Amino acid sequence: MVSDKGELKMDTFLSPEEVSYLTGRQLKAKQVDALRKMGIPFFVNARGAAIVARAAIEGRAAPLPVVKGWKPKVMGG
């Protein structure tokens, strides 16, 4: 995405305008309903706005958290 200053801008989340365009809805509650029906992962912030990760729309896989394996102390863990 390019900002008004011509700089390349990579946001983690869709802007409110992009969420509105994606859902075709202006009201926050209707945007939430539309996203649920579309099966797009999102969360709702404290203001009731739907927050959508750009990766969910672009098809990029979100990085998985690194989980350290458990090993019993008997085995040297």
Percentage of residues in strands: 5-15%
According to DSSP, the number of beta strands is 2
Q: Which sequence of SSEs, written as H and E, runs from N to C?
A: HHEEH
How far the N terminus sits from the C terminus, by CA atoms, comes to: 47 Å
Question: Strand order across the biggest sheet?
Answer: 1-2
Overall geometry comes to elongated
Helices and strands: which structural class?
Answer: mainly alpha
Radius of gyration, whole Å: 18 Å
Q: Biggest sheet, open or closed, and with what strands and sense?
A: 2 strands, antiparallel
Q: Give the averaged pLDDT, no decimals.
A: 85
Low-confidence stretches: none
DSSP helix count?
3
Helicity range? 25-40%
Task: Please tag this protein with its features.
5% strand, two-stranded antiparallel ribbon, 77 residues, DUF4224, 2 strands, mainly alpha
Task: Please characterize this protein's 3D structure.
β1 and β2 form a beta hairpin. The radius of gyration is 18 Å and the shape is elongated. The longest helix is centred in the middle third of the chain and has 11 residues, at 28-38. It is mainly alpha-helical and 77 residues long. It has a two-stranded antiparallel sheet with strand order 1-2. The model has no long low-confidence stretch (mean pLDDT 85). The chain has helices spanning 16-23, 28-38, 54-58; strands at 43-44, 50-51.
